[in-house]
Amino acid sequence: MENDIAESEISARGPWRTLLRGLSDVVFPPACVHCRGLVPDESEFRHLCGKCAAQLDYVQRPFCTTCGHPFYGVVEGERLCPHCEGLAPAYREGRTAVLLKGAARALVHELKYHRGLHVLEDMERIFRRSAAVVELARGAVLVPVPLHPRKLRERTYNQSELIAECLARAAGGGARVQRILQRSVDTDSQTHHDRRTRQSNLKNAFALARDAVIHPGHSYLLVDDVFTTGSTLNSCALVLRRAGGVNLDVVTFGHG
Ligand SMILES: [Zn+2]
Ligand SMILES: [Zn+2]
Question: Please, are residues 48 and 32 in contact by the beta-carbon 8 Å criterion?
Fold first, then answer.
């Protein structure tokens, strides 16, 4: 597991990334990951054309404080959010940068399923424009949702960890990534179980990493690529909270 993590870090940053990018730009001119059109040099994003970038749906206030999905129209008092109904959050607040559709979905897919580590620079740009997300990350310990070692061997990197590193760079102010959780149950391989069984297995799927120390005075921020039902994030939150991490929030790149 350690070796896999080290490899993913080497491939994700440093002079190698610059060199590889330079080479790949010569062989493959930058194409938009969403529409495959050409991305001109002066574009704000490197892997999204201007037209697709303009369709990014940045989350604006007011939004649900549990999952970060925006509320549309006038909001008065408490309002129930259909996206996180039934979730009893073990964390304080949940926020998300963009809605997971169109270009944002294409970025996540490229990163997750096509080894597209190059899109991380655009994700970092998106975080920089997401004031509410950056605000939670500043000064916090960013905790990526871990992959099971089997999955990590298969993919060779944990996308949530790379996204957390992007967010730490975008936020600055002492934000740093720490791998303090581990996934001990391989929930992905349990597709033969019914939904309820998988849900209950998920509850015990995470544990504190060996030697991890939780400081009650620190702010912790769980980071994942996508918010769907919130049950994975909440299982992680429970472990941190039980270990004394009471200043605990949640951030995802996309919601959907
Ligand atoms: Zn495009
Ligand atoms: Zn919600």
Answer: yes
